[in-house]
Design goal:
alpha+beta; four-stranded antiparallel beta sheet; two-stranded antiparallel sheet; 253 residues
């Protein structure tokens, strides 16, 4: 499956921070994806900006094979990689929720429910299960909260009509119409953009930290910033691949 391969690439970048971790992504792809050492691969990937400048000559050749071990100053590369990887992991979980053939209880996980003066994710106020391939059932822990849960589901991006009976709420999911496919694809793309924004924020913070370092030669600082950019680009490219593969799956299944 194309989306499985794309997700494997997306998650492989996590190995920069934790090279030997194996993660099971069962909700969407039902397979184990082992994170293998990808740091060397990431450092060889050309950044978009560097690739564009390379057309004009060989000025950026010295940035091509740079790695974290090439620098004399202290910088927490593992922490930066881990923070970027958190964004890709969040996207993997989000993508796994969107299954075309059968509804998944995880579809309701991120729906906020206002309870009194606080807002809580739906799974904290009720248990979600699948009654059949097209129907979810929410058993609300406190019957007095059931109306708030019903309203939250109705207002969500899922565009569904929940049916409340006491503390039990049935959520019939529409069959996969063209409009539903378009809405689902839109949600996946939105999740991808959110992940890339988080990655870019980590990149900007890291570059600022490097720029602000004292007594670091300008050339070394520039090479370090280029490495940050390449790692961020690699993560963003993997996000794009995973999103595009999932959208294709949604549109074709």
């Amino acid at each position: 499956m194309a989306s499985s391969a794309a997700l494997a690439r997306l998650l492989a970048l996590r190995s920069v921070a934790q090279p030997s971790v194996a993660v099971a992504v069962t909700a969407g792809f039902r397979q184990n994806i082992a994170f293998t050492a990808a740091a060397a691969v990431v450092t060889r990937l050309p950044s978009r900006g560097m690739a564009a400048k390379a057309k004009g000559g060989n000025k950026v050749n010295k940035f091509t094979n740079v790695s974290a071990s090439d620098f004399s100053f202290d910088f927490d590369w593992k922490r930066m990689d881990a923070q970027m990887a958190e964004a890709t992991e969040a996207l993997a979980k989000e993508i796994a929720k969107h299954r075309v053939g059968k509804v998944s209880p995880s579809l309701l996980n991120n729906i906020p429910v206002k309870v009194g003066e606080t807002t809580q994710p739906l799974p904290q106020v009720g248990q979600v299960s699948a009654a059949d391939a097209q129907t979810l059932v929410v058993t609300v822990f406190d019957a007095e909260t059931a109306s708030a849960v019903e309203a939250a589901i109705r207002k969500s991006d899922l565009k569904v009509t929940p049916l409340k009976n006491g503390n039990v709420i049935k959520v019939p999911m529409p069959k996969m119409t063209q409009e539903h496919r378009a809405n689902l694809a839109k949600m996946v793309k939105k999740a991808g953009e959110g992940s890339k924004e988080r990655i870019r924020a980590v990149r900007q913070k890291a570059i600022k930290q490097i720029r602000d370092m004292k007594d670091v030669p300008e050339d070394e600082s520039r090479r370090a910033q280029a490495l940050v950019q390449k790692r961020a680009d690699a993560q963003c490219d993997a996000v794009d691949s995973a999103v595009n593969a999932k959208v294709k799956e949604i549109e074709q299944e």
